[in-house]
């Protein structure tokens, strides 16, 4: 019990202070879990990060869950998730509650939040492309993925892009990585791992079928957010187009509401997937408020928990297979392309209307990339800039 409470305490502090997105989160985790508390060594931490990069979903949250499981079993993993997730989820629920009673269609500060989303996604594209889409073949996969995503903007097509890119990577990107590494000690049996993986796929198949037969928005929310959490490689920013296609066209919220929440999500610590708590809150006609928030939040993170708990017992075998890493190289390149498409639509098309908007966007981008300011400060500056633009125009 003392270990479980310790995990909850440490992860909650991280959830309150971890600004900067998934890469920054991994740095905070390394400092806290490896250097300060020595819960695991450098190599074991690197192995867990590698595992979570292989899996779809929010990589930093999955690393936290994996460390919690290693430390105190499944309950430890749950506590690690709760502590890291709830601070930002609650903050975004409060933001949604405040926003709901306001007429936001022409608010200058809202326009500033929409513009800062351009800078944040552009920063994510830049960083990911420099690591995951280098060389002619990876670059080509990224560009073709962006083109197809923009021309055929459906969730199913994005999943097919990822699958095809993985097959291309498996055939073209040969690696010879066979390291003799110390096996990770995982307190979950392979039988339990198979049970969790079976649940992951069962939800993926059964929820859409139930949604076809039962017209209930609560079920629809759970299905949409579960699918988003289950099928997105590359973390928080890449989930943006999937979520936007699932909640805006069917009238659950306006595009302005969607992008306002996305901008606010940049200003809070913790995982970007807590954006779901905002979306669930403002969804209409029912359920909305706290019920919708909880449904969306649990649904989008449930695949991450099931996948980590299911994959950990088998990771010692998988990580030694070069063809697995080759497929991942193709998948990662396609993720960059999907993110490029998201940068254009809905982020750019919704936010950049005038030269003033573009100027504010490049200033925000410079503050993030050149001056290295924390995202929450850039969000505040952009919100104020949006008010100035509203006054000037």
TrEMBL record:
Localization (cell): Cell membrane
Entry keyword set: Cell membrane, Membrane, Transmembrane, Transmembrane helix
Main location as per UniProt: membrane
Keyword check for Transmembrane helix: yes
Transmembrane regions listed in the UniProt entry: 78-97, 109-129, 141-173, 193-213, 225-243, 263-282, 294-315, 327-347, 376-392
Statement: the UniProt record of this protein carries the keyword Membrane: yes
Membrane topology label: Multi-pass membrane protein
Homology family: Belongs to the chromate ion transporter (CHR) (TC 2.A.51) family.
Protein name: Chromate transporter
């Amino acid at each position: 019990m003392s270990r479980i409470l310790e995990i909850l305490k440490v992860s909650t502090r991280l959830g309150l202070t971890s600004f900067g997105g998934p890469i920054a989160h991994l740095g905070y985790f390394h400092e806290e879990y490896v250097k300060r508390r020595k819960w695991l060594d450098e190599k074991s931490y690197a192995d867990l990060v590698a595992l979570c990069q292989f899996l779809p979903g929010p990589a930093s949250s999955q690393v936290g869950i994996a460390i919690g499981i290693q430390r105190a079993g499944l309950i430890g993993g749950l506590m690690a998730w709760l502590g890291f997730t709830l601070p930002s989820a609650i903050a975004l629920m409060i933001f949604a509650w405040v926003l709901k009673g306001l007429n936001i269609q022409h608010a200058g500060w809202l326009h500033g939040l929409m513009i800062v989303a351009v800078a944040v996604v552009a920063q994510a594209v830049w960083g990911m492309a420099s690591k995951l889409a280098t060389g002619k073949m990876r670059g080509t996969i990224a560009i073709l993925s962006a083109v197809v995503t923009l021309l055929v903007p459906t969730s199913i097509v994005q999943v097919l892009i990822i699958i095809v890119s993985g097959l291309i990577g498996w055939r073209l990107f040969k690696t010879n990585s066979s390291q003799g590494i110390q096996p990770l000690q995982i307190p979950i049996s392979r039988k339990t791992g198979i049970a969790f993986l079976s649940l992951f796929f069962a939800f993926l198949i059964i929820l859409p079928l139930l949604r076809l037969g039962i017209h209930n928005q609560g079920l629809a929310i759970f299905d949409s957010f579960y699918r988003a959490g289950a099928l997105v490689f590359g973390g928080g920013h890449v989930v943006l187009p999937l979520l936007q296609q699932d909640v805006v066209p069917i009238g659950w919220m306006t595009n302005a509401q969607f992008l306002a929440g996305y901008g606010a999500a940049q200003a809070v610590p913790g995982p970007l997937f807590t954006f779901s708590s905002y979306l669930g809150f403002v969804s209409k006609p029912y359920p909305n408020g706290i019920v919708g928030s909880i449904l969306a939040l649990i649904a989008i993170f449930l695949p991450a928990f099931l996948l980590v708990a299911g994959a950990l017992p088998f990771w010692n075998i998988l990580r030694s297979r070069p063809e697995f890493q080759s497929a991942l190289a193709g998948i990662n390149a396609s993720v960059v392309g999907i993110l490029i498409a998201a940068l254009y639509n809905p982020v750019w098309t919704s936010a950049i209307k005038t030269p003033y908007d573009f100027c504010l966007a490049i200033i925000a981008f410079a503050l993030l990339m050149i001056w290295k300011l924390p995202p929450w400060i850039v969000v505040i500056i952009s919100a104020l800039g949006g008010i100035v633009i509203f006054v000037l125009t």
